[in-house]
Amino acid sequence: MSELPIRNFCIIAHIDHGKTTLSDRLLEKTHTIAMREMRDQMLDGMDLERERGITIKAHPVNMKYTAKNGRTYELNLIDTPGHVDFAYEVSRSLAACEGALLIVDAAQGVEAQTVANVHMAMKQKLPIIPVINKVDLPTADIPNVKHQLEEILAIPGEDAILCSAKSGIGIDEVLEAVIDRIPAPEDNRKAPLQALVFDSMFDSFRGVVVHVRVFAGELVPGMSIRLMGAGENYEVKSVGVFTPKPEERERLGTGSAGYVIANIKTPSEVRIGETITSVKHPAKHPLPGFQEVHPMVFSGIYPLNTTDYERLKVSLGKLQLNDSSFVFQSESSVALGFGYRCGFLGLLHMEIIQERLRREFDLDIISTYPSVIYRVVRSNGQVLEIDNPAFMPDPSVIDHIEEPYVRVFLMTPNDSMGDLMGLVMERRGVCKRTESIDSHRVMLTCEMPLNEILVDFSDKIKTITRGYGSMDYEHMGHREGDLVKLDILVNHEPVDAFSSIVHREKAEYRGRRLAEKLKEVIPQQLFTIAIQAAIGGKIIARETVKSMGKNVTAKCYGGDISRKRKLWEKQKEGKKRMKQIGKVNIPQSAFIAVLKND
């Protein structure tokens, strides 16, 4: 039996090493797109991807290529993101492929995320074709990059293909290597249908468009299919491939990757990693999916205009279909009204989701300070998982609190190593190992709390290393820490939107900063307002908003001083009473100013 003339592969690399540019050249070379329609970053569909020059979603594309051996092959390429926050997209793409192209920048060499992506591909036992890109740059150091491939990744340097995606050097060699080195899919045409759902998106006219890779059997319009996990049956309306626009086909055979449109109406009906089979001849077992990802960073998202609450709910549902690593559930806050508690894989992921809500769905939103999942062990042994400080139990019933830790891999030039170690120690981290990559760069392996790398850690690394440093991290589980809940009290009333869980050493600094910021944004009242930062019953910082002055003696002119004294005493009593019963309404703008500043 001859092998199937199909090759399924994906492109993996560190961010900005030229994955998307290479996929543009492959589309050109295989004449998948007419030259008049060609543009840069062809597979990046979102404006956001083009503006930032990063890939956020994995993009599948089907190409036809006639090899030197005379046979015409169907090539299914999936361009994957390179940022650590989107590693889940990469793991899903790898599950749908038989091999991977590993792109390494000839000038920058192996970076932190390159190592992480290679380990993921090796775990799936996929053949890896190393491609050294940007070889025409004056700063390219090819012998050094080959040495790094061998030393760090254990990939033979002589197997690497030299290419420049920008100028089109070595593109033919890349395509031939895909044909020669990546195995064809198994020929399971006679077996019952098994198709893996590796992505999906929502189309307002056609419902849910499911991206699948067919491992056995075939998909044809009109057939009845079943989602093996959910147990639901549907009828296939149409099937097709991406070129990169959706193009309808008569069938999707074994080994192909494409899309299926069935009568699936709501986004929540399809789960990523699901197996599709036929209702008439079902497969006995589902395909091994991929592990469910658990969000690491949580933040509240609230509509600025309370009437947008329902629109926000619908928009989040559509985003979740397109990005299954994002989760949300409703919550309410005294200060901000009704909104959603959202879980993200990391900070860039959070930023992208918020930006997409603003652009694609035209929503004005505000998000609360990002937090991680803490494990609170009570005195009776009960363990609570808390992602929102508002649910923290009373300190008297807490035995200890555990926080998530990560193993961070930092690549840095030699001269920045000392400063970077200082930053790690400042963030409560410990450097476990240092390895020399080459004569210019070092890789540091550190262990530190996830909470400490949440907000500006990546930016600080870029500043210290003048843009040459890179970072990747993996989760290690939870460890006990000296953590406390920091409350902000305004006029002796706690404000839940400003509560946070922090390390005891940093609580005072953070409390003082928040109190100072609130003093600037809370408008004056007719009575003095106390802004306090507290841990349990202990006040650790205080600021005071002075009361508005009202001259009650303005109408007194001449006469005895005792008349004025009597009025001042009366005013004093009134202010005292007002302070006891008066309420401070913190304006929405104050919340926005403080949370944005955070």
The CATH topology annotation of the largest domain reads as Rossmann fold
Stretches where pLDDT falls below 50 for ≥5 residues? 39-46, 48-53
Structural class assignment: alpha+beta
**Cα-atom radius of gyration:** 29 Å
Please, how many helices?
A: 13
- Reading off the top of the CATH hierarchy, the class of the largest domain is best stated as Alpha Beta
Query: What's the number of domains?
Result: 5
Structure, explained:
By secondary structure, this protein is of the alpha+beta class. It folds into five domains: 6-181, Rossmann fold (3-Layer(aba) Sandwich), CATH 3.40.50; 194-278, Beta Barrel (Elongation Factor Tu (Ef-tu), domain 3); 297-367, 2-Layer Sandwich (Alpha-Beta Plaits), CATH 3.30.70; 375-481, Alpha-Beta Plaits (2-Layer Sandwich), CATH 3.30.70; 485-597, 2-Layer Sandwich (Alpha-Beta Plaits). Helices cover 26% and strands 33% of the residues. The chain has 13 helices and 28 strands. The protein has a six-stranded mixed sheet with strand order 2-3-1-4-5-6, sandwiched between helices. It has a six-stranded antiparallel beta barrel with strand order 7-8-12-10-9-13. Strands 18, 19, 20, 21, 22 and 23 form a six-stranded antiparallel sheet that branches. Helix 11 crosses helix 13. The longest helix has 21 residues, at 561-581. It is elongated. The relative contact order is 0.08.
